[in-house]
Amino acid sequence: MDYRKVGKEVLLLIGGKDNVVNVTHCATRLRFELKDKKKANTAQLEKTTGVISVVDSGGQYQVIIGNEVQTAFKEIQKEVGTGTARTSKNSQEKEGLVSRLISVISTTFTPMIPAITGAGMVKAILAILTLTGLLSDSSQTYIILNTIADAAFYFMPILLAYGAAIKFDVSPILAITVAGILLHPNISQLFAGGEPVSFMGIPVVAADYAGSVLPIILTVWIMSYVDRFAERVSPSFIKFFTKPMLVFLIMGPLALIVIGPFGTLLNDLVATGAEWINGKADWLIPFLMGGLQPFLVVTGTAWAMTPIATMQLSKNGSEMINGPGMLASNIAQSGATFAVAMKTKNKELKQLAASSGLTALMGITEPSLYGVTLKLKKPLIASMIGGALGGLYAGLSGLVRYAFVSPGLAALPAFIGENPMNIVHAIVTCLIAFVSTFIIAYIIGFEDIPETGEAAYEGTTDSTIDIQAPVKGRVLPLAEVNDGVFSKELLGKGVAIKPESNMITSPVAGEVLTVLESKHAIGIRSEAGVELLIHVGIDTVNLKGAPFEVFVKDGDFVTVGQPLMKVDFEQINAAGYDETVILVVTNSESFSTINEHTGNLAELEPVIDIL
């Protein structure tokens, strides 16, 4: 499958690049902030080949692609561009406080995930090398590798500054520079001297911002207002250097004196709260995360715990907020999906469940969750029970995660650390989650999808392919067209339409194969492989494009009913040409049955159906 084409089609179906405020991606999904969500064609997106599901939650419009999401994202990024987000005040005002908070967290953390994931896996490799005695923790090689692994966590405020800048619509470079102020060694040296530190007589509180989370997010949020102030007061002819100067002069002291210390206090309070809960009931958080993770993923609230887990990793070198419970939940998803693969009689569902079950086993659950368990319901319940059981063991055993990776079998090295039993507890957690879920899912079963219901599973009511009318008017058989090539069906079967509207629209969702230079004809291939020719008028090629205003080009992806061209039929008639619009299936030989419908039809009603 060409996921570049999937990316193009997704962008089209969400309302085009002008409807995108911001787009990021995680391991399996595209995360959009849209100006107007009503412009997104959710129903058509969910039917699009290559799209697993669509979720609108957490202040984001999320399109789940799967493991090839980066390919689709790069294609979308080419059209949308990079840099600061294009804000939409109206769209943000419609969001609730919780949705906006989740949106801030996800948009801020998503860009840095590859860095901390890669760094985390380096830490895991380093742990294996030292535990096996292949590398001494006092060697220079160890120090260098450890520095490589620690860099992403030490400079986390800089990584977070980029995502926060995208979210709050400020220059990422300015935001990163402000983060650099907090981490500059001169500041550390001032505090290390033991003398009170002040700025213009105002005390500066000592704080270590390396690995911190909340201080920089709060700083960039405040900076967004300072940025707009600097934009407003800077004269246009010197704005290039006065605006950043004002931002630095205001935000530098403000971050060091007020925002940073306040954010650090919040940082410590959150971390202390998590540790208090863990001290009172160490089984509770992994138990809840193991059982409720699918619900958190579907609602988009799974990101809510990420800042706490990241703080723990930075401060303690390990975390128990996300990793242990997610490990149990992900493996449980796999167990439920493999149970479906074993029990279903539907060949396509069996293939889907087997492949997505393997993916879930590796730590990526969206294909399993949205493609199988959520649709069948009972396997989802089984996965939540099994995930809770695995999470309970993880909590009682004190399981922790040493690196920020999506928990699964491929990421088990992230559970290797100072405690040699930790990896053993991780393996037992996986066994409990998988086995219990598989047994429960197999016993309680599910409503299987019969082979004859395969099309219904994909979101269509039958196997018929409907070709809509590209223009309103009276539909005639091709035999009545005053052109032997069409009337004798030399190009294929189809219909002719006497137009009553000047707008030609797409009869299918698909790719524009060709737009003739004379603009009078357009070729389209539908998602089902039907190749169509829309030919406007007879011999209108002689008009050299004059009556036609075309809105698409070769390679564009179009949806059903999307305007393709506007036609001046009066000009065609005045020039003495036949205005008949012809719709032909040019690969008619590929289909067993093609039925044409004639009579007066409105736009977008079927004029051809193909079996």
Quick summary:
The protein has four domains: 93 residues, Glucose permease domain IIB (Gyrase A, domain 2); 125 residues, no CATH class; 160 residues, no CATH class; 146 residues, Glucose Permease (Domain IIA). Helix content is 50%, strand content 15%. About 4% of the residues have low confidence.
How many individual β-strands?
Answer: 20
Question: What is the topology, as strand order, of the major beta sheet?
Answer: 15-11-12-13-17-9-8-19
Radius of gyration: 29 Å
In which range does the helix fraction lie? 40-55%
Q: Separation of termini?
A: 24 Å
Overall mean pLDDT score? 84
Q: Stretches where pLDDT falls below 50 for ≥5 residues?
A: 83-93, 452-462
Tertiary shape: flat
Beta fraction of the residues? 15-25%
Figure out the total of helices.
Answer: 22
Describe the protein's architecture and organization:
This protein has 4 domains: 3-95, 2-Layer Sandwich (Gyrase A, domain 2), CATH 3.30.1360.60; 155-279, no CATH class; 284-302 and 316-456, no CATH class; 465-610, Glucose Permease (Domain IIA), CATH 2.70.70.10. With 611 residues, it is of the alpha+beta class. The strands form 5 sheets. An 8-stranded antiparallel sheet has the order 15-11-12-13-17-9-8-19. A 4-stranded antiparallel sheet has the order 1-2-4-3.
Which features characterize this protein?
alpha+beta; Gyrase A, domain 2; 4 domains; eight-stranded antiparallel β-sheet; 22 helices
Topology:
Layout: H1 3-13, E1 20-25, E2 29-34, H2 42-47, E3 53-57, E4 60-64, H3 69-80, H4 89-93, H5 97-109, H6 113-131, H7 140-154, H8 156-168, H9 172-183, H10 185-192, E5 198-199, E6 202-203, H11 214-233, H12 239-280, H13 284-299, H14 306-316, H15 323-343, H16 347-361, H17 366-376, H18 378-397, H19 421-444, H20 454-457, E7 465-468, E8 473-477, H21 484-487, E9 493-499, E10 503-505, E11 510-515, E12 521-526, E13 531-538, E14 548-550, E15 557-558, E16 563-567, H22 569-574, E17 578-585, E18 594-596, E19 599-601, E20 606-610
Helix pairs in contact: 1-3, 5-8, 6-7, 8-9, 8-11, 9-12, 11-12, 13-15, 13-18, 15-16, 15-17, 15-18, 15-19, 16-17, 17-18, 18-19
